[in-house]
Amino acid sequence: MDIQRCSESAIQVRNLTLKYGTRLIQQDLNFDVDAGDIFVIMGGSGCGKSTLLKHMIGLYKPAEGEILYGGQNFFSSSEAEQQKMRRSWGVTYQSGALFSAMTLAENVALPLQQFSNLSVAEIRDIVSYKLALVGLAGYEDYYPARISGGMQKRAGLARAIAMDPDILFFDEPSAGLDPLSAQRLDELILQLRDSTGATVVIVTHELASIFAIGSNGVFLDAETRTQLDTGSPEQMLNHSRHAKVRSFLARGEMSTTHNTLSGREARS
Amino acid sequence: MQTNNNAHWQLDTSSKPSGQESGAVTVELYGAWLISRAIPKATELDELLTEVGNSCDEAMIHLVPGAGFEWDTGFMSFLLQLHQRAVAFGVKLDPSRLPVQCGQLFQLATAVKPEPPSAPAARSIVSLSEIADLVKSQLHFGGEVTLAFIALLSGRARTRFADCLFFFQQTGPNAIPIITLISVLVGMILAYLGLVQLRQFGAQVYIADLVAIGMTREMGALMTAVILAGRTGAAYAAQLGTMQVNEEVDALVTLGIRPVEYLVLPRILALVAVMPLLTIYSDVLGIAGGALVAVGMDLTFTQFFHHISQTLSFHAILAGCFKSIIFGLLIAMAGCQAGMTCGRSSAAVGEATTRAVVLGIVYLVVADALLNIIYYKLGI
Ligand SMILES: Nc1ncnc2c1ncn2[C@@H]1O[C@H](COP(=O)(O)OP(=O)(O)OP(=O)(O)O)[C@@H](O)[C@H]1O
Ligand SMILES: [Mg+2]
Fold first, then answer.
1. Which of B145, B140, B374, B337 is nearest to B258 (CA)?
2. A115 in contact with B at a CB cutoff of 8 Å?
3. CATH of the domain at A209
4. Which of B149, B355, B135, B163 is nearest to B260 (CA)?
5. What CATH number did the domain enclosing B70 receive?
6. How many domains does chain A have?
7. Which of A19, A47, A171 to mutate to test the pocket of ligand 1 (most atoms within 8 A of CB)?
8. Measured between CB atoms, does B95 come within 8 Å of chain A?
9. pLDDT tens digit sequence for B211-248
């Protein structure tokens, strides 16, 4: 399995078109995520990053195109194979998505109870360890409603990494965290990648994170509804053909003026 | 020509000769364009926009502040409306001679292209396609539940026994007080109903038959089902709907756990298991309620219960229990289906709850009618 993972891309996205009903969100997406990559999905707010992620984790079926995991097409696989693939992933949601009727410990323990043969005591120890990793040691018995939004996100992360997944999908993990926690989170993601060899797909706006951890990425555009560029963040910042991508990554500092119909511009 | 400070606009004719050929006109804005005052509608300029727009490709309207010009949000919203209309007519607006902040706000408001409005969902009170969708989704859900149940029987499902127990506790014991009250009252109602009629023939003793058979065959199961449709069916829909809104269901799916096995099956099993028990409890209390009325009127306890022991068959109780199992299944299905197909907003959770109760009650009344016909035909 590992040998295969090194030899080919972990995830291949081919001619993907994303729609909600008839509403087009993105089209003609083509990119590869290599094993061990930290792959950043970038783009302005509302351009369809979360939508792309939800398609990649198999929640929505793409209108067109395919997504291959280790060469296997997810959406044409059998239900049993899909379940198996899903179990090798860890996912966090933009909203946390903790099970509100369960304590944090029960949340993190759920996948372990369902898919491993560990004893209750072993599960408890693993749960404590995972919660400690995300800075939530001692919060085992809290219910999600009783912790802050940032803490919920971190608890969601602990649940996602409970099974040491091969591929991790994060939707804006550091939004709503203070700068120090966000930095710790970046470190954690790098550590996870290095220690378990996981592939990480991450949606984020944080430029600091993008440059600190991103090794590859794709930039989605809301206006043209397609990807503008792929490659590592540095490469995109310095060499992208699109001013929009460069200006996004430079925090708008080289922003081209908007076409706001000012008289002088139009007359000249 | 207005002389007061009311907001109004005027075409600046002095610059017209030079302007008109190049497709540019100047509009002067006078007075207080404030949100608390009357402000002209952007549509008033349609005529001008048409005229200017047709005259040339690169048409342009310069906006110039005139005497006593004041502005606030009211003016800005007028300006944005005007801008959107102007774009439609192929005319450009030039706000550069307006106050600086005004121009900056305008730039901000127009920096991002507006999303084309999505076609509004066609709305009718009840459309056939809606009903077809409903039936389809119910059948689909029924199929999923059946598959999950088969998986459970073959030991492959990820249903937790602890969850079943938890919901059993919630739906069963916790519903006892209200079921007690309703059952006793229904028993009394049946007794009164019969008493008035049967007394005319001096056949009061048959009240016992009426109450016993009425409760066991029909009212026990039906009233319990109605209570649980409102209590448990609605709760299921709200719980699952909220889990949809919080993306908890998505989270389960991506953990590789089928929501139908993990969330729906324990709820259905709990309700199906609890219904016959509650129904028998309701039968007993209903008969007790009937006895109270009968004894208060003409009969003695011994007469009443003696008569019941002669007429009440095991059959009738079983028939009622079988009904209640079907009712339980239907209520749980309606509740869970409404919850699982809930939209992603708090309003959608409310709708799901309503649908759970309404559909649940419709299902159980229809099923009751069908079962009665079947029982009659089979002579049960
Ligand atoms: N369930 C849905 N049904 C219909 N349209 C949706 C749905 N969810 C999102 N959209 C639309 O899809 C577009 C992309 O949404 P998405 O959530 O993917 O954006 P995003 O890039 O993640 O934005 P952000 O950075 O703000 O999280 C938006 O225009 C939104 O209106
Ligand atoms: Mg998003």
1. B145
2. yes
3. 3.40.50.300
4. B149
5. 3.30.750
6. 1
7. A47
8. yes
9. 999 999 999 999 999 999 999 999 999 999 999 999 99
